[in-house]
Amino acid sequence: MEQIYICLREEFLSAAQYHINKNTLNTFKEYYMQYIDSNRKLSQIKDLTTLVKILEKRDILSCYNVKPLLHISNYFSNESLQSKIKDYNIYVKNISYSLFCNMYQKTNENINKDKCEISNTTENSSLQTTSNKHENEFTLQYEDQKKNVLLSHLSERIGRSWRDTVRHLDIPEYQIDIIENKYPFNLKEQSYEALKLYMTQYNNNNWKINLINALEKARRRDLKELVEKLILEN
């Protein structure tokens, strides 16, 4: 769950940074002042990332409570992000409720055991199914977001090396030609499209290893190390 939260937080910061100006940031500082309860900490907040870190240190924001993210997201229009935050909130509530039910059941396991056995089994099964469903959904979202982060970093830096890289990833030459013709003179778009094609159509369970090897074969050790770092961080 923590990894899913981290990914959601990073997506939130990436989307919010273009919309939160100094005045809006000051509004947030005033709103959370009573919770932060430290003038020194408040004076350190110069951007949204720092605010989020301090909220986490004060346990106002955590993988169990993303209400601050939802509150801040109301200041800029991003329905997709707000939907993800709300879905995550539901996911956390389901997990918490499931844990509570399990604790309650253990405490009272010797009371009316026969009477409650069928009911508890049915309820726990339903809760587990719901929990697993949400966890699977967020795992898929987490993987997609991880790929998007890698795509963004690589397309910014890879330049003309994208052709050699995707050739080592077994992207056919005709696909490379199509991409070059689609985005003439735009290396960033070309590389983004080609790498995205690999990740969506030609990848397998070893897509990370294959990508790292392809970058090394294309003599882009700098990007190979960057990808390794990003994968480890996530």
Automatic annotation (TrEMBL):
What PROSITE patterns does its record include? DEATH_DOMAIN
Q: Which domain of life is it from?
A: Eukaryota
InterPro entries linked to this entry: DEATH-like_dom_sf (IPR011029), Death_dom (IPR000488)
What range(s) does the Death domain occupy? 147-231
Output the GO biological process annotations, alphabetical, semicolon-separated.
signal transduction
This protein is called Death domain-containing protein
